[in-house]
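Hi Prof. W.,

I finally got the General stress protein 17M-like domain-containing protein prediction working! I wasn't sure whether to trim anything, so I left the full sequence exactly as given:
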Amino acid sequence: MSNQSLFSRRRPVLPPVLPRGEVLATYNTYADAQGAVDTLAKADFPVKQLSIVGSDLKSVERVTGKLTYGRVALAGAASGAWLGIFFGILFFLFSPTGSSLPFVLAALIMGAGFGMLLGIASYAINRRRRDFTSTMQVIATSYEVIVDSELVNRARNLLGGQRDSEPPVSPTTSE
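And this is what came out:
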């Protein structure tokens, strides 16, 4: 997971390859691995030489609720209303008369109605296959912080100093 800056220069996309180097530490959660990288960054370590690699990936689907005709109708009406507002505002902006505000309301109502009908129809067709809502994630069971071989001792020293002053983040170093 990374956060790209909108204002940074675009770099050419590198082909996907596994990072080279030594395993600095292994963590059970991504947050712990990210915390170790943050600790190194605060100590002015060259973080461009670090990578977090997730291993043993698992696909996790979390069920978030049961679908009903009421929920499907409400969700369809809401998404249709947004589309209706969009078209209503377009009519309002490009209308030659200034009294086109009722067009926005009419477009909103029509969009909500069509969205509701489409949502109910889609649910009725697919009801036997899927009667619940869920979110899907890909999660690693462990995360390794990889560092260039020539910098591994410096990184271990910096993380070792962090363990003396703060509660440990439970790394398992491999040598």
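The beta strands are 22-27, 50-66, 132-147. Does that look reasonable to you?

Thanks,
D.
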